[in-house]
Amino acid sequence: MSYEAGYHLGVLPHNGEALVRRVLERFELPNDALIRIRNNNRSQTFLPVDQPVSATALLSRYLDLQGVARRSDIQVLAEYTECPPEKEKLISLGGDDPDAVARYREEVLHKNVSLLDLLEEHRSCALPFNIYLELVPPLKPRYYSISSSPLVDPEKCSITVGVIDAPARSGRGEYRGICSSYLAQQPVGGVIECFVRPPSTPFVPPEDPSTSMIMVAAGTGLAPFRGFLQDRAMVKKEGKRVGPSMLFFGCRNPQQDYIYQEELEEFAREGVTALECAFSRLEGQPKTYVQNRIEAQQEDIWPLVEGGAIIYVCGDAGRMAPEVERAFVELFRNRNGVTEQEAEEWMAELKESKRYLLDVWPRN
After folding, report:
1. Does the annotation mark 359 as catalytic?
2. Least packed by Cβ within 10 Å: which of 96, 150, 313, 320?
3. Are residues 84 and 181 in the same domain?
4. 304 in helix, strand or coil?
5. Alpha-carbon Rg of the chain, whole angstroms?
């Protein structure tokens, strides 16, 4: 395989042993159980059919056991539940009336409650294992921005992963990210199943290295920009001209999550990029976010924007990305004395011309 800066690595994860064991115990299946799956209709299935497969392998590699239960799934659970109170509760969560929909959003969707969680809570539900297999969604690849450049080493790539391991919003024990935990448990020299994919948007460095870049990231959103800057550093070492860049990076504390600190500061010393850090949990200092640093550095940013810089934003879609966009809109208003509507139209034009690019995702 080969890749370019800005490409994604798709990783095929496995469910953890504890999660698989919960399913086996709920359906009273032994660890060494073998299963043969037959497809009773003409629709395609992601499951291995017409061949013996261990229940452990099936649950580990094919099914998204932590996927949020759908209302239609809960309706099926209710059909297989004999206990009146438990049946009534499931109906109240899976119904189509407005009150049931509101309860579903509050008690299931917002809390990431899975089918397995509901089955463990409603012990009288006699859902057959084959129906469970039909309801659970497939375990899909997780995509990570490649955080390295092939100009440094075409035979290696890196990804930057924040491991999710925290109390579950459902109140049921711990929630562990399927792929991040899977990767964190791999030994040195371990083998994973993965593939390279170009980004769905042109979130890659400019073809012309003399084009200016403004990069904004928080946390692991820094990943693609490390690759961008490695690209620029190698081009610069070859004696070619590279355009000016600015990197705005936000994290909690420089002692805690200032990832790639030495490398980023070396890029700044070499003139590959200007570096602006925002620390939101620095003791004795007010909370500072990347949008605050953008506001403070308007004098340096605006010449780059006027000169055709491409603006990249990577990270949290819920709060960070809208706040950063607002900061650039306000920057345009301040520099040009225009109305809010005119500034919004300018932002729309930037997006249309692929000069304002997003690679964002919702918070877990």
Report:
1. yes
2. 96
3. no
4. helix
5. 25
